[in-house]
Each structure stands twice: as C-alpha cells, then as structure tokens.
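[audit] Reproducing an earlier prediction to check determinism. Same input, same settings, fresh worker. If the tokens differ from the archived copy the diff job will pick it up downstream; this log only records the rerun itself.
[audit] input (129 residues):
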Amino acid sequence: MPRAVILCVDDEAVILKSLEIELQSAFGDTYLYEFAESGDEALEIIDELNGEEVQLLIIVSDWLMPGMKGDELLIKVHQNYPKIHKVMLTGQADEQAVERAKQYANLYRYLQKPWNSQELIETIRSALA
C-alpha cells in the first residue's frame, strides 16, 4: 500500500527545500513528500495522487504566490477533498485571507514566517494524530 503524502506549496524553492529538510528530519520515511511552486501545480499533484489512490494527509501552503493565492488553493482543495488538513505558512497573508481560509477551507492552523521548526512539526503531528 502506498504511503500517505504531505504536500508543501510555496513559490520560493529555498522555502520548499527547508521544509523538505525539516519534514525528512522529523518524519523520515513515514510519509512521502511532494512540493509545488504554485497553486496550479499543487492541484495537478493532488489530481495525480487521487488518480493513483494515494492519500494526501496535509497541505502546508504559502499565501502570497503568483497566480492563485494560498487561501484560494486551500478553498478549492477543501471543496473536493474536505478531509485533507490545511495549514497556511506565510509572512504575507492579510486577515481577510486567513478568515476566508478558516471559514471556507476549514483551515487547521495559520503559522507566520519565519516559522519555528518545532511549532511547525508539532502542528503537523497534531493534524495527523
């Protein structure tokens, strides 16, 4: 049976690399990790995973990205996959975006950049529990 996936979405490759290192350090090979540099790329990955019947457990998404903003992405994901936990990790989100994500995407948690590694890992652990 394929392992479950954690998806990280951010338009900055250096952020995605940092997240990969932290997730790998905290969870090792327990989960698979996917990374997208845009909302559209994230939706493609989600469709592929769904087609392969691989369970996506959690999305950690930036808010301020070219094209689709993080709250829009999380709302779209929630409409089709309401059981996926959604975390917004950003330094740029306005309060209305966070409220929209809470109201329409069942946002699990909002974390500010620069993030605290321990807080991020504990957030993911509690979402997966």
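[audit] rerun output stored. Observation attached for the diff report: The helical segments are 13-27, 39-51, 70-80, 95-105, 117-128.
[audit] end
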